[in-house]
Amino acid sequence: MHPDCERILLTEEEIHLKVKELAAQISRDYSDRELLVVGILKGSVIFLADLVRNITVPTRFDFMAVSSYGASSKSSGVVRILKDLNQGIEGRHILIVEDIVDTGLTLSYLVDNLKTRGPVSIKVCTLLDKPSRRMVDVAVHYNGFQIEDHFVVGYGLDYNERYRNLPCIMVLSPNVYKGGKKA
Ligand code: PRP
Description:
Elements: E1 5-10, H1 12-29, E2 35-41, H2 45-52, E3 59-68, H3 73-76, E4 79-83, E5 93-101, H4 105-115, E6 121-129, E7 142-146, E8 152-153, E9 169-172, H5 174-177
Parallel strand pairs: 2-3, 2-5, 5-6, 6-7
Antiparallel strand pairs: 1-9, 3-4, 8-9
This protein binds 1-O-pyrophosphono-5-O-phosphono-alpha-D-ribofuranose.
1-O-pyrophosphono-5-O-phosphono-alpha-D-ribofuranose (PRP) binds near residues 41, 98, 99, 101 and 105.
């Protein structure tokens, strides 16, 4: 256990079982199609790396990086693209991969933005979901774990860019983030 964390929320084993389950479901659903997995940097990287290695249909992947505009932007839902996809998505089946859906504002923006580019389909896969924090309704098709509103880190999730490399998901001790940002 990391000294900055108060407890383990999801163990490596629980995560890996869930990743296999999600990948099996995705592989069944896309059995006769090719998938373009779109990872949202940086939190999704570890999850995406494990997920795509368990998907059995032909799969490409690409990344986007987004950032919200300052403090008020979370509630306005205005998102800035810092890194766009390297390829067009017209005619493709898109699977957006996130580490966590919180207010849903990032995802809602991304889905709307990608829809304008002419894909055949867009679905969303997230490892974690905090439904109690949702501000906009956004469809999540593959959902690993619904969690309470804990400040969680590890397996890609950070606090001030730290803890992403922890192999499991932990609840951060409040004294670490007092006055800080959300996980
Ligand atoms: C996190 C997460 C989602 C977003 C979810 O990213 O990876 O992209 O926040 O929050 P929302 O549902 O309230 O919009 P973050 O901005 O922390 O960047 P990171 O992935 O680089 O850690």
